[in-house]
Amino acid sequence: MPEDVTPRFNLPYLHAGQAQKEAYHNEALTLVDILTHAHALSAQLNEPPAALVEGQCWIVGTSPQGAWGGRAGALACWTAGGWRFITPRDGMRVHVEDEALDCTYDGGYWTRGAIRPAGIFLSNVKVLGTRQAAISAPSGGGLIDGQARAAILAILNALQNHGLIEVSE
Questions:
Q1: Is the pTM of this model over 0.70?
Q2: Which DSSP string do the residues of the chain spell out, in sequence order?
Q3: Which of 25, 96, 110, 150 qualifies as a FRET site for 39, CA 20 to 30 Å off?
Q4: Where do the domains of the chain lie?
């Protein structure tokens, strides 16, 4: 019944007078344990590995087979009670160990390692910003000094816009 679980991750609710509350509570704790700081060993497998350790998780590949059949893109975790599958939601983030990066679920698929900041800041100083226009290489022969100065000025402007060097006064 839909009212028996949470809307996002189907965590079971407890109800007054409910029998075996500990089973529902333990199931909810198992799911919370999986989702809190989610971690997967890999996002490349289409079938479960042979050697399983309780608590290990994987992002199921695009062509799942065996126990993972029909679960493409799900977070599959081995627990004492068997496989638990988490249907990802947009914005869900999982660290993938064998790739040493985070995967984010976005629009029906996992994006690997992408970050989308407006800029990167170190000690509150912007050190990387959006890509600027291309800088033309100097060409020709008679105006080398003028072209070199223009190219150097463009490089300085790009470095300043990215926050890599300070703007001179």
A1: no
A2: -GGGB-TTT-PBPP-TT-TTHHHHHHHHHHHHHHHTT-EES-S--SS--SS--TT-EEE--SS--GGGTT-TT-EEEEETTEEEEE---TT-EEEEGGGTEEEEEETTEEEES----S-EEETTEEEE-S-----PPP--STTHHHHHHHHHHHHHHHHHHTTSSPPP-
A3: 25
A4: 1-36, 39-116, 120-161
Contact between residue 23 and residue 35 where contact means Cβ atoms under 8 Å apart: no
Whether the CB-CB separation of 98 and 57 falls below 8 Å is answered with no
Q: Is 150 exposed, middle or buried (0-12, 13-18, 19+ CB in 10 A)?
A: middle
Q: What would the pLDDT profile of 132-157 be if each residue is shown by its tens digit?
A: 676 665 666 565 677 788 888 888 88
